[in-house]
Amino acid sequence: MTTRRSLAAPAALVLALTACASVDVRTVTSPGANLTALHTFAVMPQPARRLSAAQSTNDPMLVNSISNRALRTDLVKAFENRGYVLSDKPDFTVAYYASAKEKLDVTYWDYGYRYYPSWWDGPGFYDRGYPPSVTEYTQGTVIVDVVDPSTRELLWRGQGVATVSDDEAQYEQDLWKTVTAILEKFPRAVARS
Questions:
Q1: Which end of the chain is less congested by CB atoms within 10 angstroms, N or C?
Q2: Whether the Cβ atoms of residue 141 and residue 98 lie closer than 8 Å to each other
Q3: Per residue in 8-38, pLDDT tens?
């Protein structure tokens, strides 16, 4: 049985997205949203969290300001790379969220016949079958919301989901890969005429 240990510090989970795996990105645009009219942006401050029974105290966005700052910095850089300008009077504001949860992947390698033929290694050997492959891993999610600052209406949402790496050296690079994978689905800024 193969298992991977999760990171001890929940906050480190956010920074390790996409170590060896790709990022599963999904997006949605509000009907009627004119994203081509957007040129300037601001990143919203993290809201004060209210702990309730439904919220985990292991929330990476709650317990680690380092994760928050890294994600915020990457978002600013990624939007600027797409041609948008950081502004005090923005056309849109950006909200962001991150989370991590433990997952279990069980794979059976059974095609309905004996894995080992009866002549292989004596009686009883083939009756055991092939055991399933079990992998424990941490899955991280980053959500990026584009909001109209005047109406506070959601214009666009991008979500990236990936396996979290245990390698601390990969954290910042992997977070950057996750943010850029999400924003590749957001249109580039159109030059003003």
A1: C
A2: yes
A3: 333 344 444 334 458 999 999 999 999 999 9
